[in-house]
Amino acid sequence: MExxxxxxxxxxxxxxxxxxxxxxxxxxxxxRAVETRWKALMGRYVKxxxxxxxxxLGKIVFYDSGLYRVDYExxxxxxxxxxxxxxxxxxxxxxxxxxxxxxxxxxxxxxKDVKTKEVLVGNAMDSVNTVDGVEALSSxxxxxxxxNEIDGxxxxxxxxxxxxxxxYDRDSSLEVEASLVSPPQLPPxxxxxxxxxxxxxxxxxxxxxxxxxxxxxxxxxxxLNDFVGSLNCPVxxxxxxxxxxxxxxxxxxxxxxxxxxxxxxxxKCLRCIDWSL
Length: 277
Description:
By secondary structure, the protein is α+β, with helices and mostly antiparallel strands. Helix 7 (about 240-260) packs antiparallel against helix 8. The longest helix is centred in the middle third of the chain and has 49 residues, at about 95-145. Among the domains are: about 30-145, no CATH class; about 200-270, no CATH class. It is elongated. It has helices spanning about 20-40, 80-90, 95-145, 155-180, 200-210, 225-230, 240-260, 265-270; strands spanning about 45-50, 55-65, 65-70, 75-80. Strands 1-2-3-4 form a four-stranded antiparallel β-sheet. Keywords: Nucleus. Its main location: nucleus. It is found in: Nucleus. InterPro entries: DDT_dom, Tudor_AtPTM-like. It comes from Davidia involucrata.
């Protein structure tokens, strides 16, 4: 009989360790793919049937934390996951009925955006008025503090006059500091530029900014005379339209970058601004 050969159990093949940089690259690629997917669905239309209510046309208005907000033509809305959204998406081949409903839906959403902006502006104005009221109250209390009792001690006339003189000196110093900060002196020829003299410095600042970032904003070069002419033009013109579109595109790209990094404020700005203008 042949002797049985005893074979040692060999080790299994070593598992290749995944490179850390490759893993990071894969995660970034997946993240970009997800961002591209949700951005591509923004502004698309859906048609969904609700039992007992009928079929309604809706529009995807924004995306947040894996959910798409869909506003419907009856004024209602709901949040859907990507799988649900894909089931109800409709193509671009609208018939006459859908075109009319789409137009009404867009008008409804536009009015809704205007109301949202008015609420935001109203809240901002209320905050400013509140701050102004607090500052006015504080200044009134400070001006009268020299004539009132502090912790039960009555201030005499000499101390009151001394505090008033200190306040006068402080106000005088503030006026001197304010007078030192004056607009730059411009040559007499600046009065022939085509805008009021008090706005010439602002004109130069805006023009220099636009020319400095013309490449980043994808703006074709233009002269100062062209810019002044477009400002004085009483009808819409291509130069101001190009500047407006370039600034809005740059702002939207920046807000989308901040929003993808988790900025809630940037996401709110993307929701509130009407980017179709």
